[in-house]
């Protein structure tokens, strides 16, 4: 069933994502807010990383800059060993849709398309061949093999998020970004979604970056990056729910006393 | 709730712009033509002058008023439909359906009143200019003074208020019912109204045969008929379009690119919302075809009768076309207005498509393909409605089955309809696409 995992497109770099001194400032002049303050990090291919931090710490900005949804004001973003460039949105979109899949808190499915149509939309937009059997296979994997013809308004939140995961997997991207994927789900659906993301890493060899504020969700990842005030504020490997919660609770202390630039090697 | 309605207007004037523009233009056109009745009502006016003025007020003013009514109603329907999220929010914080209804209806009353008040002065100027043209062409005596009185005001306020309140009430009823989880009403009222419009249109067109060829108001019945038929067709065209796309959609979507694929699926699912945009398009095409051709036939018939070959006759021809032209231009502006309103609210949908990997070009191509399908559908039904008005008029007026006028006017109308539809939707979509995709999906437009 998962024999296709080795067929992951062109030569894949061992480093899935690299950020070098990425900065992002919103607003201008006196009321400017620095969302990202020179963030540098590197994530190996086939890793599952959670990004955590209090509200306003820059989690979402980090994800959006890394995913090419928002243009950073400074610094360098490299996906799959290639520098993210694009003079305009069209080029950036083309770069993105070859390498990156998305899962959002609000699903962002198109209400006019069925489950199967939503899933294959990225392929359709990229002008790639659509393999019906493969679509069926992916949707069966996420547990929706019998819902191909349903429309989003006929599904529950958990099912919608699983459609979104299928849509992110279908293009066989090297990177999958998930922005609070369990934020709107009940406990059981959340667990299903997190297991699917884990599976995407372990079985399919994708790299997953997940922004979350939930220590339980973060505990499914291989490692957790902590973010505070737009800077990296620590890293934890093999996270447990309690350890993550504890670290999160004391993140404020570190920020308060921080004067040095916290050299982060991740 | 009234206070909330006022605050809602004050905080987001841009949201009400489309409705305000519709109410303003509609009231201006209605009052301009209806002030001819007021002018004709003066005590010391001669018979010929009064006749000309009453005829203009009755014929053009009459079908113009009908057109204004439907144009305002369709713009408002588009506008209220877009506010589902706000209505849902109000429901969640404890507003009863009746309160929500009062708020939305209250808002539209305010907007209609403001639009009509703003239109009073321009309508006076327009009416004065119209009277001036009649006097220049010798149809109205020089001594007649312009009057703007109760008939113009009553017509202006009644038409805008009834159209606004009626449309707002129906649209919000639909929205609140859908929000409370019950299934949305099954368009029974709408289908009934559509059938009634078709019946009334057919009746009105048939009434042409009962008139005398020399009757100066001969044009009224077929023009009314063309408008009612346009409304009826516009009500049912989305359903027909959905059926047609159901047959042709799959093979087209399979062969064409991603943009056309999205277009086909979008239009099949959103066919009910499309009615709001198709209405002004069908109305414009139907009304423009009917009135411009009928005026051309009338002009040629006068010429052929050899009664007059004077300069005045030429003036008269031009003047009649100008009068008809005002109403046609109004229909075109309403088309642009409601298309703008409908497209500018689709930012969230465009954002989702972009996040799924659509380039801005692909989104624009989709909007363009939609515009093309809309134009073809609207022009088709509008032309059918127009022809239904033209043929009886031509038969009675000239005793020949088919009019001599060529396809020139029709091609012009189609060109204007296509240009207005495509340019408006593409330009609006372009503007909407300037918002980054992530921001577009989270911020409710």
Topology (SSEs and partners):
The complex is a heterodimer of chains A (266) and B (445).
Chain A: E1 15-26, E2 33-44, E3 48-52, H1 59-66, E4 74-79, E5 82-83, H2 89-99, E6 100-104, H3 115-125, H4 132-141, H5 157-170, E7 175-179, H6 187-202, E8 207-211, H7 215-218, E9 223-228, E10 231-237, H8 241-249, H9 251-257
Parallel strand pairs in A: 3-8, 3-9, 6-7, 7-8
Antiparallel strand pairs in A: 1-2, 1-4, 4-5, 9-10
Helix pairs in contact in A: 3-5, 4-5, 5-6
Chain B: H1 2-11, H2 17-40, H3 47-81, H4 84-92, H5 97-136, H6 150-179, H7 188-210, H8 220-255, H9 258-269, H10 271-305, H11 311-344, H12 347-355, H13 360-398, H14 408-432, H15 437-442
Helix pairs in contact in B: 1-5, 2-3, 2-5, 2-6, 2-11, 3-5, 3-6, 3-8, 3-10, 3-11, 5-6, 5-11, 7-8, 7-13, 8-9, 8-10, 8-13, 9-13, 10-11, 10-13, 10-14, 11-14, 13-14
Account of the 3D structure:
The complex is a heterodimer of chains A (266) and B (445). Helices cover 34% and strands 24% of the residues of chain A. Chain A has 266 residues and is an alpha/beta fold. Chain A has one domain: Rossmann fold, CATH 3.40.50.300. The two termini of chain A are 34 Å apart. Chain B is mainly alpha-helical and 445 residues long. Chain B folds into two domains: 1-185, no CATH class; 186-445, no CATH class. Helices cover 82% and strands 0% of the residues of chain B. Chain B has 15 helices and no strands. Chain B starts with a helix and ends with a helix. The model of chain B has no long low-confidence stretch (mean pLDDT 82). The chains are: A alpha/beta (266), B mainly alpha (445).
């Amino acid at each position: 069933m998962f024999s296709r995992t080795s067929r992951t497109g062109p030569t894949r770099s061992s480093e899935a994502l690299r950020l070098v001194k990425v900065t992002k400032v919103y607003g201008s002049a006196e009321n400017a807010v620095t969302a990202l303050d020179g963030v540098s990090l590197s994530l190996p291919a086939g890793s599952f990383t959670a990004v955590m931090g209090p509200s306003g710490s820059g989690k979402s900005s980090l994800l959006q800059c890394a995913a090419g949804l928002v243009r950073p004001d400074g610094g360098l973003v490299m996906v799959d060993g290639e520098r993210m460039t694009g003079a305009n949105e069209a080029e950036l979109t083309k770069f993105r849709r070859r390498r990156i899949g998305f899962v959002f808190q609000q699903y962002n499915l198109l209400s006019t398309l069925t489950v199967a149509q939503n899933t294959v939309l990225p392929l359709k937009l990229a002008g790639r061949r659509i393999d019906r059997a493969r679509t069926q296979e992916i949707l069966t994997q996420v547990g929706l093999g019998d819902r191909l013809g349903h429309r989003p308004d006929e599904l529950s939140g958990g099912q919608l998020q699983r459609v979104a995961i299928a849509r992110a997997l279908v293009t066989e991207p090297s990177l999958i970004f998930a922005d609070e994927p369990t934020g709107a789900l009940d406990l059981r659906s959340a667990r299903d979604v997190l297991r699917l993301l884990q599976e995407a890493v372990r079985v399919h060899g994708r790299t997953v970056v997940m922004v979350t504020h939930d220590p339980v969700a973060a505990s499914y990842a291989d490692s957790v990056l902590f973010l505070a005030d737009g800077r990296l504020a620590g890293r934890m490997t093999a996270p447990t729910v309690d350890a993550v919660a504890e670290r999160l609770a004391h993140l404020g202390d570190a920020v308060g006393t921080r004067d040095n630039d916290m050299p982060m090697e991740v | 709730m009234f206070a909330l309605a006022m605050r809602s207007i004050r905080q987001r004037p841009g949201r009400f712009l489309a409705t305000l523009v519709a109410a303003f233009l509609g009231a201006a056109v209605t009052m301009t033509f209806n002030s001819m009745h007021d002018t004709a009502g003066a005590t010391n006016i001669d018979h010929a002058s009064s006749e000309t003025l009453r005829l203009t007020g009755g014929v053009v003013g009459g079908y113009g008023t009908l057109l204004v009514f439907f144009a305002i109603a369709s713009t408002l329907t588009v506008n209220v439909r877009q506010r589902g999220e706000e209505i849902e929010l109000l429901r969640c914080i404890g507003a009863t359906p009746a309160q929500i209804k009062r708020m939305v209806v209250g808002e539209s009353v305010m907007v209609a009143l403001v639009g009509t008040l703003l239109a009073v002065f321009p309508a006076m100027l327009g009416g004065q200019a119209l009277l001036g043209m009649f006097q220049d062409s010798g149809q109205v005596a020089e001594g007649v003074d312009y009057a703007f009185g109760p008939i113009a005001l009553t017509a202006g306020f009644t038409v805008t208020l009834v159209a606004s309140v009626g449309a707002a009430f129906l649209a919000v009823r639909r929205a609140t019912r859908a929000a409370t989880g019950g299934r949305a009403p099954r368009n029974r009222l709408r289908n009934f109204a559509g059938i009634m419009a078709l019946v009334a249109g057919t009746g009105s067109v048939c009434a042409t045969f009962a008139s005398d060829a020399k009757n100066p108001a001969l044009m009224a019945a077929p023009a009314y008929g063309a408008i009612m038929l346009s409304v009826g067709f516009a009500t049912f065209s989305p359903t027909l379009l959905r059926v047609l796309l159901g047959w042709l959609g799959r093979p087209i979507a399979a062969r064409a690119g991603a943009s056309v694929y999205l277009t086909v699926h979008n239009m099949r699912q959103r066919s009910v919302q499309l009615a709001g945009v198709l209405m002004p398009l069908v109305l414009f095409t139907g009304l423009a075809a009917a009135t411009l051709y009928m005026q051309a036939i009338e002009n040629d018939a006068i010429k052929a009768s050899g009664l007059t070959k004077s300069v005045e006759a030429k003036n008269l021809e031009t003047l009649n076309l100008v009068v008809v032209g005002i109403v046609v231009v109004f229909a075109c502006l309403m088309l642009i207005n409601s298309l703008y309103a409908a497209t500018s609210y689709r930012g969230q949908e465009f954002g989702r498509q972009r996040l799924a990997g659509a380039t801005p070009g692909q989104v624009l191509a989709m909007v363009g393909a939609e515009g093309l399908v809309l134009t073809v559908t609207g022009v088709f039904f509008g032309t059918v409605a127009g022809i239904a008005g033209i043929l009886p008029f031509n038969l009675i007026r000239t005793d020949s089955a088919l009019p001599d006028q060529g396809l020139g006017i029709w091609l012009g109308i189609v060109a204007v309809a296509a240009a207005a539809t495509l340019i408006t939707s593409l330009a609006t979509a372009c503007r909407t696409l300037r918002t980054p995709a992530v921001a577009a999906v989270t911020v409710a437009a």
